[in-house]
């Protein structure tokens, strides 16, 4: 990232990041995200480590905190913005679904398999759900979502076709 | 009106979004104008209830696959969170950006760094060292007596005044000057270590402080100890009980020097205030609140210990024009009969926050030093259990939450059964047996 001597953004950086995130953010939001990135990145290493993410109290009490943090390994600023992009009010429903699918697909092979679902359910529902119940739920979900042994993105998308994702929006605080 | 209420509730359960407020929920706000209201177990319960309300429970498919809520919580926390806001220093607006103001600014810099700073450092050096010498002399030569203590107090007060002069402190004190009294303890909001100096230059205080390193430790141990200051280590769990006992000792002494406590436990940026710890409010003493508000017009007095060393912080103070500050000594408060120490702490915090114009945030300042999720896994488990109950309901099982004992037994039994190689039937009978027991 072309850092100026004072550690600020250049216009070229901003343009690059806006392009990478498909233009859902305007310049003010990028600047605000950059300030946030710099605040989280304690040693000014250029990326945020999982420990630094988990030092945010509100994030550390999130059930899927570990998965979220490992989803983008040590993000640099561009990756950080791309991660937040699906939550912009200007992001498309498709983008939001893609993001959810990526998080759910733990092993990253493009399909949500039984193992992926099992791992996610462990994070979502915890240990009070027994292994047998978990497998039972996974079987039912797979059956209801088209009957295949694992879900690809189109199947995931149609399974969530009736879901209202209007709440999936994060406001970027912008200093006026 | 609805918008306002919603906003307040969203921030009252940090990390959990999307709850629509109704009147009942307003009673449950974690932080009201009177301060924090709930204990840990109740907070866990609130999160569980809110989570339950948030789950749409429409179909198994959606409840399992639609993770938009927790993802939104998570990313929202990544983008902005109320805890870190307490420790950010606002960058001052640059005003020297045109051809007319810039030379004036340069002149100002020259005067501050090359004229004022050397003068201040020299005077401080001479004055402070002279006072230290006199102090040590008094310490070593005189026998312990009331007069000796009085002299030491005066000397410490002068030393602090020397420091305040070095920063060209313009400090206004409002309210009645503290006098020593039995069973009284003073509490204040905390912005930097200089809070103590600012207060002590007006009226002597003993203080309980984190023991630091280097030259500060020398000052702390040698000089401030004679005032009856107490040292502790925030990471030492046992220290807390010891410190509580010594606090009680101190306030019970006749004409004890006023004891000052910073219940936040850490330096905060003077715009917010974090949770007041109940230690000082639990010893049955009258609490005298002190509010300190720094005017950031010339310099930001917040010491961000994660970002700058104390020496650099002092340097910054000594190369600015002045340190402007208001100190309010407020009316002493006693614990009311139906109040718990935590509620009392919250009430006093609300008073101080009003005078010093601070926003109250329900986080424990020590979160700077540890990961909340690790320290308090119960909260996450409670939230997870809510979803687990909903999912189990789809399977036709009861949604009674198993007790911890039953869970442990179930877990152990499941492991045993699986290692024995017994079939699925064995596990489910244990599970339903555990459920039946709880009903």
Q: Judging from the principal axes of the Cα atoms, what is the shape of chain A? A: globular
Radius of gyration of chain B: 27 Å
Largest interface: A-B, 60 and 65 residues
Low-pLDDT runs of 5+ residues of chain B are 1-11, 20-37, 399-439
Globally, the shape of chain B reads: globular
Biggest sheet: strand arrangement of chain B? 3-10-9-4-7-5-6
Total helix count of chain A?
10
Protein name (chain A): EF-hand domain-containing protein
Keywords (chain A): Calcium
Domain EF-hand (chain A): 28-63, 92-127
Pfam families (chain A): EF-hand_1, EF-hand_5
SSE blueprint and pairings:
The complex is a heterodimer of chains A (176) and B (439).
Chain A: H1 11-20, H2 27-40, H3 50-54, H4 57-60, H5 65-71, H6 77-84, H7 93-104, H8 114-125, H9 131-144, H10 153-159
Chain B: H1 2-12, H2 23-27, E1 31-32, E2 35-36, H3 40-54, H4 60-65, H5 68-79, H6 101-141, H7 146-166, E3 169-174, E4 184-188, H8 194-200, E5 206-210, H9 214-223, E6 230-232, H10 237-252, E7 259-261, E8 272-273, E9 286-295, H11 310-318, E10 323-329, H12 341-355, E11 359-360, H13 372-375, H14 377-394, H15 404-420, H16 424-438
Parallel strand pairs in B: 3-10, 4-7, 4-9, 5-6, 5-7, 8-11
Antiparallel strand pairs in B: 1-2, 9-10
Helix pairs in contact in B: 3-14, 6-7, 15-16
């Amino acid at each position: 990232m072309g850092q100026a001597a004072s550690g600020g953004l250049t216009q070229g950086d901003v343009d690059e990041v806006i392009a990478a995130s498909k233009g859902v953010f305007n310049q003010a939001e990028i600047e605000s995200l950059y300030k946030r990135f710099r605040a989280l990145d304690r040693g000014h290493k250029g990326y945020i480590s999982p420990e630094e993410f988990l030092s945010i109290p509100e994030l550390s009490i999130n059930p899927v905190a570990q998965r979220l943090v490992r989803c983008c390994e040590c993000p640099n600023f561009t990756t950080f913005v791309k991660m937040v992009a699906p939550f912009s009010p200007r992001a498309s429903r498709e983008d939001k679904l893609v993001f959810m699918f990526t998080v759910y697909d733990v092993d990253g092979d493009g399909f949500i398999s039984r193992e992926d679902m099992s791992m996610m359910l462990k994070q979502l529902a915890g240990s009070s759900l027994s292994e047998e119940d978990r497998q039972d739920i996974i079987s039912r979900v797979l059956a209801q979502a088209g009957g295949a042994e694992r879900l690809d993105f189109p199947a995931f998308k149609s399974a969530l076709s009736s879901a209202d994702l209007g709440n999936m929006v994060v406001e970027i605080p912008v200093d006026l | 009106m609805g918008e306002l209420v919603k906003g307040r509730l969203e921030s009252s359960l940090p990390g959990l979004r999307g709850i629509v407020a109704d009147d009942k929920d307003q009673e449950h706000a974690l932080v009201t104008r009177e301060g924090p209201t709930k204990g840990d177990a109740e907070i866990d319960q609130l999160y569980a209830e809110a989570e339950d309300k948030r789950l749409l429970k429409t179909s198994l498919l959606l409840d399992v696959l639609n993770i938009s809520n927790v993802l939104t919580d998570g990313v929202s926390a990544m983008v902005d969170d109320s805890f870190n806001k307490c420790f950010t220093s606002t960058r001052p607006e640059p005003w020297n950006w045109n051809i007319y103001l810039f030379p004036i600014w340069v002149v100002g810099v020259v005067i501050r760094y090359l004229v004022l700073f050397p003068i201040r450092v020299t005077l401080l050096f001479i004055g402070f060292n002279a006072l230290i010498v006199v102090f040590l002399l008094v310490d070593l030569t005189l026998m312990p007596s009331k007069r000796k203590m009085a002299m030491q107090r005066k000397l410490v007060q002068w030393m602090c005044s020397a420091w305040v002069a070095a920063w060209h402190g313009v400090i206004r004190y409002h309210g009645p000057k503290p006098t020593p009294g039995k069973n009284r303890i003073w509490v204040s909001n905390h912005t930097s270590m200089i809070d103590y100096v600012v207060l002590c230059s007006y009226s002597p205080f003993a203080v309980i402080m984190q023991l630091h390193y280097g030259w500060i430790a020398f000052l702390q141990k040698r000089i401030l100890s004679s005032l009856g200051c107490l040292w502790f280590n925030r990471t030492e769990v046992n220290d807390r009980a010891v410190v509580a006992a010594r606090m009680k000792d101190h306030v019970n002494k006749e004409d004890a020097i006023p004891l000052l406590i910073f219940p936040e436990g850490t330096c905060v940026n003077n715009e917010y205030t974090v949770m007041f710890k109940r230690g000082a409010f639990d010893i049955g003493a009258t609490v005298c609140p002190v509010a300190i508000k720094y005017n950031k017009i010339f310099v930001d007095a917040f010491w961000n210990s994660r970002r700058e060393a104390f020496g650099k912080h002092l340097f910054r103070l000594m190369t600015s024009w002045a340190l402007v500050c208001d100190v309010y000594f407020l009316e002493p408060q006693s614990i009311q009969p139906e109040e718990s120490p935590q509620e009392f702490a919250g009430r006093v915090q609300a008073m101080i926050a009003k005078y010093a114009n601070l926003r109250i945030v329900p986080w424990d300042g020590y979160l700077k030093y540890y990961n909340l999720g690790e320290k308090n896994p119960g909260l996450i488990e409670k939230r997870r259990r809510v979803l687990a109950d909903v999912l189990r309901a789809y399977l036709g099982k009861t949604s009674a939450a198993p007790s911890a004992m039953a869970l442990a037994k179930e877990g152990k039994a499941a492991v045993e059964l699986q290692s024995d190689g017994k079939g699925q039937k064995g596990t489910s009978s244990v599970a339903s047996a555990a459920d039946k027991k709880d009903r």
